[in-house]
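Milestone M4 deliverable, item 7.
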Amino acid sequence: MIYFAPLEGITSFLYRKTHQEFFGGVDRYYAPFISPSSSHNFKSKERRDILPENNQGVTMIPQILSNHPEEFIFTANCLYDMGYEEVNLNLGCPSGTVVSKGRGSGFLEKLPDLEDFLQEIYDKCKSQISIKTRLGMKEPEEFYRILEIYNKFPVKELTIHPRTREDYYRGPVHPEFFSWARAHTDLVLCYNGDINSVEDYEKIQEEFPQVPVMMGRGLLTRPSLGREMGGGDPASPEELLAFEETLRRRYREIMPEIPTLYKLKEVWSFMAKSMPDPDKTWKKIKKSKRLSDYEIQIRTIRDAMK
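Output delivered:
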């Protein structure tokens, strides 16, 4: 099983839909987190992203970022009423603004509060709840106690990113803690972290047979990676450009030019690495100030491949 991890600002419903159409190879897409508020209202962007009609043909799991049980429960139950039988609790985000509010991986340093929170949401939510977690805030050994807490609840699936919050995305992964977790839980586990190639995937499968994997940056950089893991072909430069063209058209249907340009630059900040001349491709795109400039650069890139 291959899961596409969410990345705020990029993996919107339009990206998910277009990625599925062009490359496939992904069994589940996780939507960028919803951050509930005391007003119990979805932001317009959040609502548009999770509307069932905007996610037809894609298996999507909404993700919630919260440390307030009543807000989580209200949001999860609204999503259940929309047809989503599973929601994912984000306990992995390492962003400073998130952690400073005690959410995401920041919740992992308040274990009594976390246990109380989990007790309430598992008691009162209509939906099943999966969890995406890190090993702790500072030391991977924190996970020994954290897993004890998770084991008390009917977690639908536990995705483990075997880094601490302080490791962010740069520190080494600690797969030995994933191995330890397999021996100390009956929960269904999913592996996440530094899977950027077919070789990385095969290594994980060799070490942890049949374990689902979740990828984010690896799939953004190499959109055909899920397909390749199933024995398919890597995306050609022409296919990547056709993907971009469709994505650009869909963005323009709902957004003005400047937001469209920013979105496309975010996509290319990863995807340029899969082009024949990554540095040159990214340099051309990055310097574009208007969408018309960007489109000229894309034509230049396409013409250079003829």
